[in-house]
Amino acid sequence: MPVIRQMDQRLANMIAAGEVVDRPASVIKELIENAIDAKASVIMVDVFDMGMSKMVVADNGCGMDHVDAKMAFSRHATSKIKDEYDLSHIKTLGFRGEALAAIASVSKVVLKTRQEDQEGYMVIYEGGHFISEGVASLNKGTIIEVNDLFFNTPARFKYIKSEVAEKNQIIDIFDRLALAHPEIRFSLSMDGKKVKETFGKPDMHQLIDSIYGPRMTQGMVSFKEVVQKVEIEGYLLSPQIARSRKKDISIFVNGRYIKNYALVQAVIDGYHSFMMVGKYPVALIHIVLDPSLLDCNVHPQKYEVKFVNEMILAYHIEGYVKQALLSARHEIPESLEKIHKVERENTYTPIQMDFTEIREEHVDHIEEKERHKLPDLSYVGVFSGTYLIFQNEEGMYLVDQHAAAERVRYEHYMKVFKNPQKIRKMMLLGFALPLTDQDLSVIKHNLKALADVGFIFNENVELLEVPTWLRDEDIDLAVETVVTMLDQEKHIDLLKLRDALAKDISCKGAIKANKSLSKIEIDHLMKELQVCENPYHCPHGRPTIIKLSHYDIERMFKRVV
Ligand SMILES: Nc1ncnc2c1ncn2[C@@H]1O[C@H](COP(=O)(O)OP(=O)(O)OP(=O)(O)O)[C@@H](O)[C@H]1O
Ligand SMILES: [Mg+2]
Question: Who lines ligand 1 at CB under 6 A?
Fold first, then answer.
C-alpha cells in the first residue's frame, strides 16, 4: 500500500529550503539516512571514482511498493510527516521529502525496491525526468544507484575538491552514521575495495574500533545518565589519544549526527584537565530526548538542530565527562596539573533543569566563539527599560539585565561559599539598615551569632563590619535574610544562607527589570558576565543573552527566505 504523500503547500513552505546535494558525500548521507529510516539492519555502500561516476546504497529495509517507488522522486513527497504536528515531533532522520528529488535532478538514478512478499520494482530517472519503470529482481529492501553525478550541472563541479578530500568526506559521514547506529551492520567499499565495516552489534568497543582502528578503545570510559527524561550516553576514548582537531568529537541526538558548537565545547571542557592545550579528544555523545524538545528543521542538510535549553545540556555533558574521566582515574599529567590548577575532587553537582521551560523560536543563543567568553559587543541602547541592546558585525544582541545580574551574583556566591573566609571588612560609616523594631530586637539578641558569620553591629544596631565575601549591593538583603533565619530558626545555617544569597538574593537583589543603568554600570555588568562560567543563562535556566543574526533579521523582513 502506498505510504508516500505529497505535502500540502502550507507544510511545504514551512520546511527549511535549500540545496542538499552539493557533493558526493551529501548524496551518500541522504541515501544512508533513508535506509536507516526504512529500518534496515544491513546497509552497504559502494562508491566509484569518489562518487562522481557511481554510488550504490543497498539496504534490507522495508522497501517500497511500485506506486511509492515513483512517488519518492516527487518534491515534498514523504512518508515521514503529514502535518505541522509531525514536523515538530520528528522521529526519523528524513522528513523534508526532498532528497531523492534533488539527487535525481542532478544525476541518473536507478532505484530497485521490494517489499516483503511482493514483487520487486525498478524506476529510472535522469536529470529529474522519469525514464522508465518495470519489474525487477532483488531481495527485500532497496538498492539505489546514482550515476554521473552533476552530469547536467557542470557548474557544481567547481565545488568538488581533490579526490582525497571527497573520499574523506564520504568516509567521514559514513563513520558518523555507523557510530550513531550500532544496531545496523554497515559496509563501505571504494572502487571495489572494502574500506570500513561494522558488525551490527551493541558492543561499542567493537564498533568504535572498527571505525577508528584496532585497540583505539583501550582505556575508554563510558557513562549513561538520565536527567529529567533526557538520556545522555558518552563514550570517551583515552585522553592519550589526542587529536589536533575537534572533529572526532561526535554528538548524536535521537540517532542523528549533529554539529553543535556548545556541546562539542562541553566535551572539550570536560576533558580539559586531561589534555594538552590545543589537543582534542575522540569522544561520542549520544543524546536521546523527546522529539518535541528538538527542532530539526533549521537547515536543509539537518546538521544543525535547535535544542530547548542547550546550555543546560552542555553543562551536564561537561560534568558527566569530567566525572567519568576522574572516576576512571585517568592520570592527569603533572605538567598539566600546574597549568590547569586541576581540581581533583569532582565539583560537578547536577542542577535541576527544565528542558521544556523555553522553546527557542527565531532566535539563537549566541554561538560562542569560545565558551565562557562573550563576543565583543558595542552598546546601542536599552529597550523597554530591561533589555540592553548591543551589536557587532554578526548581528544584534539583547541582554536581559535582570537575568544577567542574577547569573553574576549566583556564580559569585557559589564560588565564595566553596571556601567561605572569615575575614571581615569595615564599613566606611556605620550602616543604618531599614529594619523594623522586631528585626532590631532579633539582632540585639543575637549579636554573637551574627558576629560568628561576619556581621558586626554596634550598640545602636548600626552595621560596622561585614564578611568580605558579601557584595556591597547585597548587604541589606543579606542582613534581612540572616535576621529572618534567626527569627524563625534561632540559628544561622551557612549552607542555607549561601543558597539564599545565591538564588533568592541574587534574584531579589539583582538589578530589577526597568531600573535604568548608567553606562558605567552596564560596562561593569558585562565585564562580570564575561568571566562567568556560564554567562548564557540565569540560575533558573532562562537565557541572559539572545542573538539575532543579520540573517535572522533579514528573514523576518522577508529579504531572504
Ligand atoms: N531506502 C529506502 N527504503 C524505503 N523507502 C525509502 C527509501 N528511500 C526513500 N524511501 C521513501 O521515499 C520517500 C522520499 O525519500 P526522500 O529521501 O526524498 O525524502 P525523506 O526521506 O522523506 O525526507 P528528506 O528529504 O528529509 O530526506 C521517503 O519518505 C520514503 O518513504
Ligand atoms: Mg530522505
Answer: 4, 30, 34-35, 38, 59, 61-64, 72, 77-80, 94-101, 142
